[in-house]
Amino acid sequence: MSIPELIVQNWSRLLGGLAMTVELTIISLIIAAVLGLTFGLLSVSKKKTLRAIALVYVDIVRGTPLLVQAFFIYFGIPAALGLRLDPNMAGIITLSMNAGGYLAEIFRGGIESVNKGQMEAARSLGLPYSLAMTKVILPQAIRTMTPALINQCIITLKDTSILSIIGIQELTQTGRLIIANNYQAFEMWTIVAVMYFIIIMILTKISKRIERKMSYGKSKN
Amino acid sequence: MGKVKIKNLKKSFGDLEVLKDINLEVHEREVICIIGPSGSGKSTLLRCINALEVSSSGTIEVDGNDITNAADNELNKYRQNIGMVFQQFNLFPHMTVLENISFAPVALKLKTKKEADEMSLKLLRRVDLEEKANIYPEQLSGGQQQRVAIARALAMNPDVMLFDEPTSALDPEMVGEVLNVMKKLAKEGMTMIVVTHEMGFAREVADRVIFIDEGFIVEEGPPQEVFGNPKNQRTINFLNMVL
Ligand SMILES: Nc1ncnc2c1ncn2[C@@H]1O[C@H](COP(=O)(O)OP(=O)(O)O)[C@@H](O)[C@H]1O
Ligand SMILES: [Mg+2]
Description:
The complex is a heterodimer. Helix content of chain A is 82%, strand content 0%. By secondary structure, chain A is mainly alpha-helical. By secondary structure, chain B is α/β, with parallel strands linked by helices. Chain B is globular. The two termini of chain B are 34 Å apart. In chain B, the strands form 2 sheets. Chain B has a 6-stranded mixed sheet with strand order 6-7-8-3-9-10, sandwiched between helices. In chain B, strands 2-1-4-5 form a 4-stranded antiparallel sheet, with helices on one face. The chains are: A mainly alpha, B alpha/beta. The complex binds adenosine-5'-diphosphate and magnesium ion (MG). Residues 42-43, 165 of chain B line the site of magnesium ion.
């Protein structure tokens, strides 16, 4: 069968796989954003123990392969605790923890990139640290972080393909299952690759637009 | 009545003792100018007064409140009363001029947005920048930014204002407009502590000039005394260098 014929024949399964990929990505990134912000804030804390906690988390995430993290969460922890974990759940936990670690570093970098005088100006007006952080530092940090944030979204989207190994039916796993029936590896992997490519190009376009919108200046009327 | 009372203040950074024994009392409506060589501890002294730096020992009282032993939430209250103007302006770049000024009173729930904006416009009028309300700081000149920074500090209605070399980062032609705003403030009776290299301003506006060198107050007195008849050799050397 030709590629167009294969697309027509497998359209709904492929779209289902893509939907699962996008769903895993979105849910994981939302949880990862919370983790990343939390641990990013810990890593710029004045308290040494809080910084140490953040450091350990980030180092573990960065120091181990995603695949090993996925196996540890899907096979390792359930084996130790004598329970069963749904693969989707395991996948979301893995991706969230993983992206959370990288986002923590991105948040730390963003916060540290803001001039020290900004925090001092805010504190000198009588603002508590938390308000100064949320209203003065973070809005500026997030602007400089935007490219790195979007880059992490793209990485996490691609990382979902690794979760095919624990049996989650996202796009890559869907491709494998279809090939198991029709043996058309070249055509099917071409289709799958192009689907990833299109989604990521769309994300990149959107991100370019956001970046441009976020630059300062231009009066507000 | 002492507005700011500093007793036996010491401040070290690691092994470096920057402030060695500072005693200073600033009275209500008084304007103090602090002069001294670079690295002598002027900024550190100013920053200890609103606890941006934590003093190593000694006490600082502002309006009777002990700054040096205050809990975090008390300190936040006390700081509302102590305005600070920085050499580098430190305006919030993601807010318009008006938002910069209204921000703190609104964030601290002292005023509604509407009340704060009305006050901010009045403050902008005072620093002669009313027409810049809806512009972002990066579109302003340095002198305009510093005037906005003064307005922002005034928005908290402080009793004391600290200025850390407010004109040092400015092109020469913009120094005057900032000093004029400060002169007006002084005339209106604001208690001010000003670290400056503008000897003309000190001579004209200061009630008292303080010369700091190597972490000590070496000489102090009315400007005509300190500038006209300095007693300490180090003061004489410094003045010869800058005048
Ligand atoms: N945060 C800091 N850490 C270490 N040393 C500092 C710090 N801030 C200031 N210093 C040092 O303290 C001394 C006095 O600095 P500063 O108060 O800024 O002097 P001035 O404002 O009179 O030029 C300098 O030697 C400076 O290097
Ligand atoms: Mg200084």
